Amino acid sequence: QQTVYTFGGAAPHDDPRQRDKTITGGKGANLAEMASIGLPVPPGFTITTEESVRYLREGADFSDALRSDVANALKHIEAAVGKNFGDAADPLLVSVRSGARVSMPGMMDTVLNLGLNDATVEGLANTSGDERFAWDSYRRFIQMYSDVVLGLDHGLFEEALEIVKEDNGFYADTELSADDWRALVTEFKALVEQEQGKPFPQDVTEQLWGAIAAVFDSWDSDRAKVYRRLNDIPADWGTAVNVQAMVFGNMGDTSATGVAFTRDPATGNRAYYGEYLINAQGEDVVAGIRTPQYLTKDARETAGAKPLSMEEAMPDAYGELARVFDLLEAHYKDMQDIEFTVERGKLWMLQTRSGKRTAKAALKMAVEMVGEGLIDEQEAVRRVDPMALDQLLHPTLDPDAPRDVMTTGLPASPGAAAGKIVLDADTAEQWSQRGDKVILVRVETSPEDIHGMHAAQGILTARGGMTSHAAVVARGMGRPCVSGASAVSIDRDTRTLRIGDKELKEGDEITLDGAKGQVMLGIVPTVEPELVGDFGILMDWADKLRRMRVRTNAETPDDCRMARQFGAEGIGLCRTEHMFFDAGRISAVRQMILAEDEAGRRKALEVLLPEQRADFTAIFEVMAGLPCTIRLLDPPLHEFLPHSDSEFADLADATGLGVDHLKRRAGELHEFNPMLGHRGCRLGITFPEIYEMQARAIFEAVCAVQKESGEAPLPEIMIPLVATRRELEILRALVERVAEEVFEEQGARVDYLVGTMIELPRAALMAGEIAHEGAFFSFGTNDLTQTTLGVSRDDSARFLAPYVDKGIFPRDPFVSLDIDGVGQLVEMAADRGRATRPDIKLGICGEHGGDPASISFCEEVGLDYVSASPYRVPIARLAAAQAAL
Ligand code: PEP
Ligand code: MG
């Protein structure tokens, strides 16, 4: 297999592996693609992701094949540029960048200006005719290389630079002269020697391999691991490495560098959007060190900013850039996120990729691109990440509520966020773990802050533009973000901050409006979202395209109503035990549990019957005409018992029984392994009167709703935790008997089904038998995962994260179905069930019913529906449509 692919210059770009992101990474594949359609791409080469995986697996060792392929590929760059690597008279310089399959903003390493040393810097000064530029580039290279490859503290170099500036009374880097930079290089080199005990590497080949190794290694850095876990990126993908001839945005005032989007990534508006900096290198824009300027005249005027936009300052290069934007959108048929450099008036493309966007922008672009004829409805449906819809389903700030606006920054990522101020990522994580909502406030964010950004409701930064790390990552995560709010100043020592004229401290509450860039004191009230406009249009398309039905897991009329607004087509799981916990009835429930005999239990159940009937009636009114799966009591009885002394005392009052007696009885019910204990249908087998009461409540409620409104739901009575055919046979007979009794009493009849959950491996194995007794199966994949893996769903949080980091499970199996393992049981049970009963209804009601990857699997095995919690219903509708495409 080829380990290296060249691009640009005279390189061929016709090997399909080169355009395959899994092989050459997103950046490498797109560079090749851009070069092949004739766009100006500096020549370079890509080392495949396969090589990085091999390198990491084989303990940081390069293969001989790689060494010789890299040497040859370097010759390609030399030939295309007409300069030689390490040539003291006219040196070729390269950049070395990572490029995983999907972009991981700021997560992995980059080295620029590689190939500079004490000799080549003189050559660069001569050929560029710009000594200052040459020495500035060299010091940048030493700085970056020392940080990324040698692992030295970058603070050391920044400090040295600050001292030079202070000594000379300089404010900006641009004030330093060639001699200043030359002196600083000497100092930087001394620093390196002092820190690592050997001089800065002068051999350019050594530099190159050092940088390649650093990029490979960065795949396994801590921050990359956290990012992978948060974004479900498998550990075994590895990263490609791109080595590319340098072009310089820092060659004076006719040079620039920038980041741009072909449409606005926050709102989806169709307008070029971006930032650039004159006389700067790419990292300056992204790192938020200098405040970048607007790309277009329009944007500058709207913002009321002074410094000229690129459209005004560099009309020719801007014109060329606009032409490239249009070519790229037409080619990729999607919004592109671009990095470019202008070197002495000439535009160069350094990167293009499909741009990260907010959910709102994703919807707007998908719908508008259909209107523009760029894509069709199917593609629009495929485009939108179902999980991103979550951002739109949550409350927004009440437009009528008063706002105490302390300052306004850049509207970097829309949405409302309110919470307590925290000043660092670790605190954000700790406070949010203890249940606080927090807003992470930083001068600027770096990849080390990623866990805190994830834990926070929103992010506020004092520095950085719309394409700063904070902005890009926040948009990708769906976190509201206000960036570049320069009125915010943070004092880390006292853990206080000033916003405008207000003094605040960590823990004080603020609210962010990410769409307006506003920062408000206190908590601003919110309103529920409206699911109309682009959202409605896209969901209609999705509904036309999907085969599977989408139901909801709900047990209150409010949840049912909300789920129906979100498009639920029935209830897939109503956990009746949730009704037992209600304050008004827990006492009757406890009396039932503590009863010494059946008569005592029946007495308590008589109190519960009208309550349950009322619950079901309220739900059925909302769900009239739709199928409703009602599960009979599932958890072990002791879960309902009192825990604290005061609860025991209350119960003693209510029952007239002594506290000691109650505690003894509770002790008798104690189980070592309640999840595998007296629960589910085992309760129905041992205490049939409980299931009788529930069945009666259900049928009486259906009959009542039928009588009242003329339209009943279709109750599907579900028996949990069945392992054997006989269990279901006994309990189905019980339900049918109660149904007949109620129909007789009511003089009415309704349709209903009796079925079971498949949530034990034995049930999956015996599905062919069990299907004789049940009209439907609902896969309870929470318990099925727990019992198949032998991993406790309630205890796994403590050890699953490292399991995912180490690639033992690609994702948390309680979140995303273990398709390889548990999936086999689901598929087998579906097949065996259908073999016995061809029209058996099949669905899923475990948490996985709201997870897109699991939903895709459900489509594959031909389930009839998935069921998800109300907020996940739209996600499931879209994911089901994508699965059907
Ligand atoms: C399941 O086990 O998947 C399920 C839906 O039931 P519960 O989560 O209530 O155990
Ligand atoms: Mg279960």
Task: Give the amount of beta strand, in percent.
Answer: 15-25%
Shape type: elongated
Q: For the largest beta sheet, what order do the strands appear in spatially?
A: 14-24-23-16-17-18-19-15
Mean pLDDT, nearest integer? 91
Number of DSSP helical runs: 35
Under CATH, the homologous superfamily of the domain at 546-575 and 759-885 reads Phosphoenolpyruvate-binding domains
Radius of gyration: 32 Å
Count of individual beta strands = 33
Q: From the coordinates shown, what is the CATH architecture of the domain at 546-575 and 759-885?
A: Alpha-Beta Barrel
**What fold name stands as the CATH topology of the domain at 546-575 and 759-885?**
TIM Barrel
CATH top level label of the domain at 546-575 and 759-885: Alpha Beta
Kindly report how far apart the N and C termini lie.
33 Å
Describe the structure using short key phrases.
885 residues, alpha/beta, D-amino Acid Aminotransferase, Chain A, domain 1, Glucose Oxidase, domain 1, TIM Barrel, eight-stranded mixed sheet, eight-stranded parallel β-barrel, binds phosphoenolpyruvate, binds magnesium ion, PPDK_AMP/ATP-bd, pyruvate, phosphate dikinase activity, Pyruvate, phosphate dikinase
Can you characterise this structure?
The chain is of the alpha/beta class. Among the domains are: about 255-355, 2-Layer Sandwich (D-amino Acid Aminotransferase, Chain A, domain 1), CATH 3.30.470; about 395-525, Phosphohistidine domain (Glucose Oxidase, domain 1); about 545-575 and about 760-885, TIM Barrel (Alpha-Beta Barrel); about 575-625 and about 635-715, Alpha-Beta Barrel (TIM Barrel). It contains 35 helices and 33 strands. It has an eight-stranded mixed β-sheet with strand order 14-24-23-16-17-18-19-15. It has an eight-stranded parallel beta barrel with strand order 26-27-28-29-30-31-32-33, surrounded by five helices. Strand 29, helix 28 (about 725-745) and strand 30 form a beta-alpha-beta unit. It is elongated and about 100 Å long. The model has no long low-confidence stretch (mean pLDDT about 90). Bound molecules: phosphoenolpyruvate and magnesium ion. Belongs to the PEP-utilizing enzyme family. Keywords: ATP-binding, Nucleotide-binding, Pyruvate, Transferase. InterPro entries: PEP-util_enz_mobile_dom (IPR008279), PEP_util_AS (IPR018274), PEP_util_C (IPR000121), PPDK_AMP/ATP-bd (IPR002192), Pyruvate_phosphate_dikinase (IPR010121).
